[in-house]
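Model it.
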Amino acid sequence: MNVSDYQILNVIKTYIKNMRGKVDSAEDANKHPGTSADAPSPDDGMRKMVFDRIDEIVSEKVKKHET
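Modeled.
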């Protein structure tokens, strides 16, 4: 059985989408009542940059394989 690049990229894309939901829900559960909800932690910026970069790479590969 052969698995195409398109199928692999869709699995990765779905995985990233699902992990974002888990990260968001975990962050909500870990918030302490004494902290401000508006104050971002230093890890939030790095996490966002990593997810944005992964999204960009996967999107480019999907577009490349669709054409």
